Amino acid sequence: MFLRTETLTEKKLLGNTLRASFAKNNTRTLWQGFMPMRKEIKNVIGTDLYSLEVYEPGFFASFNPEKEFDKWACVEVTDYNSIPDKMKMLVVPQGLYAVFLHKGSASEGVKTYRYIFETWLPGSGYTLANRPHFAVMGAKYKSEDPSSEEEIWIPVNAKQ
């Protein structure tokens, strides 16, 4: 599952967002709203889709599945010179990420996240950083297909 650590350069993303929680998973609604409007974005970099979460500082200190966060459906863009109506901008700052490969259906992603947060992170030389978390859904992403693949990017800092 663990692939590598990588210093991400700043990314400019454009898409839709809504408030979500782990108990109230409205990811499907978010993507159903975003995908038809995606063709309106003129300055897209590549074909990857980004499923992204922005958590408040300390979100994971005392886990509560009802606690809300910002969930995004977006694409990377070259600039913000042309922003379609109802779309929002998000800049992901440069920083260190641990990158994991999730193989299998999207609904089985919980197994990969459990491994990351319960096994890998506590045993690694890293701590969780306060930057966006995201999944990159590229050419091998097939939603609920068991052969689907996506990269999961978790923001980290080296332990001091």
In short:
The longest helix has 15 residues, at 109-123. It contains two helices and nine strands. By secondary structure, the chain is mainly β.
Annotate the secondary structure layout.
Layout (H helix, E strand, L loop, with lengths): L1 E7 L2 E10 L6 H8 L14 E6 L14 E8 L11 E5 L2 E9 L5 H15 L2 E3 L4 E5 L11 E10 L2
Antiparallel strand pairs: 1-6, 2-4, 2-5, 3-4, 3-8, 6-9, 7-9, 8-9
Cα gyration radius (Å) = 15 Å
CATH superfamily: Regulatory factor, effector binding domain
Straight-line N-to-C gap: 25 Å
Which descriptor suits the 3D outline?
globular
Query: Helical element count?
Result: 2
| Unreliable stretches | none
**Count of individual beta strands:** 9
> What is the CATH architecture annotation?
Alpha-Beta Barrel
What is the succession of H and E elements?
EEHEEEEHEEE
CATH topology: Multidrug-efflux Transporter 1 Regulator Bmrr, Chain A
The portion of residues assigned to helices is: 10-25%
What number of structural domains do the residues give?
1
Average pLDDT rating: 94
Strand content: 35-45%
State the CATH class: Alpha Beta
Structural class: mainly beta
The profile of the biggest β sheet is: 9 strands, antiparallel
Which descriptors apply to this entry?
160 residues; mainly beta; Multidrug-efflux Transporter 1 Regulator Bmrr, Chain A; nine-stranded antiparallel sheet; 9 strands
